[in-house]
Fold this protein.
Amino acid sequence: MPSASNLTRLWQSPLELFADVARTQGDWGHIDLGAKSLYLASHPDLVRELLLERASQFSKGAALERTRVVLGDGLLTCSADLHRKQRRQLQPAFTRDRVRASIDTAMSYTKAATERWTDGQLLDASAEMMTLAQRIIARNVLGVAISEQDARTVGDALDTLVQKFGWLLVPGSAILWHLPFPAMRRMQHARKALIDLTRRMVEERRGRCSTEAFDVLSILLDEDTQTTGNPSQVADQVLTLFLAGHDTTGNGLAWTWQALSNNPGLEDRWHQELDSVLAGGEVNNANYDDLKLTRQLVLESLRLFPPAPAIGRTALEVTSLGGHHVGRGDIVEVCPWTLHRDERFFANALEYDPDRWAGGLEKTLPAGRYIPFGLGPRLCIGMHYALSVSVVTLATIGQRWRLHRCANDPVDVLPRSITL
């Protein structure tokens, strides 16, 4: 395919392009971009080799590198050496005990947010879930509270950045960023709104740090950490975790509501589980593990609608994957969106079937087959947190409400993710 055509499709409809390449070229596809070669790895063995076994031979992809202009040097965008240090530093905020401690906060925030809903009300489910996820992660992970207005500001800014992100993929984008083009100005204003909120959260938390607290901001602001005296690095970490964390949870919940609305029988079964397990009470540590179908719904939504629909890496040296030559500087993409929809790896792959996860399927799948949170050294640090909050939020809403689509119009799929 001509490189100009490929560049256009990569900008405008990347998922469609990757699906076409996987279908026509198989497990190892080539996309001509002119000056560079882009390869698409569409088999779990290749995915495992790229992201896990040969991870040290690759750096994060070009698209992720370009997000540094927005996110700075946080956990998502930093170099491999700095990433290892930052991950070790932040890990205490994401232990099993910390994740389980987040259940009560997620439940209480969800109850409060839905108390203003009324029967028959028209809701933008995606916006509602994003706002709720933002407020929960701010309290649970960062130890601060944000208002609904703050959450809407974040949502608007993120929408702008996603819509205009293609500009950052254009050669010379580092120069374009500083030029007075309307698209660049809108992105700069959006970034400023995010930075202003982030700095306000940092300052709010700074005066309340405790050696017994293990939220991210307490760790970052602790006098013994390496980030002491580096406000910019603290802000970069906060912005990265805040945006990536809420985006994963909010998107997954929105897709789950659509799936339930499209499957009345499944929805009825799910409400039977809620009635049986919760018996009119609240989600807590004692009954959380019994919400098996609820967790399966979340896992299936992450399969069909992965938070990071594409994961890119750039070769640091001449190497090979599955016997295929990869030159220094070549780009290798993995597309969980297409991988998770491949009939070879999931039976009836295009069907929304949470029952496939009964019996703990996710623990038995070969590495590289199911990768909604990535794989290898850059596996999402908040994976278990996102799953936990999603289950709690879904169950808490489901106790009182059923969300149904008000029209049968197709739902547009916009690749919006800053998760990997």
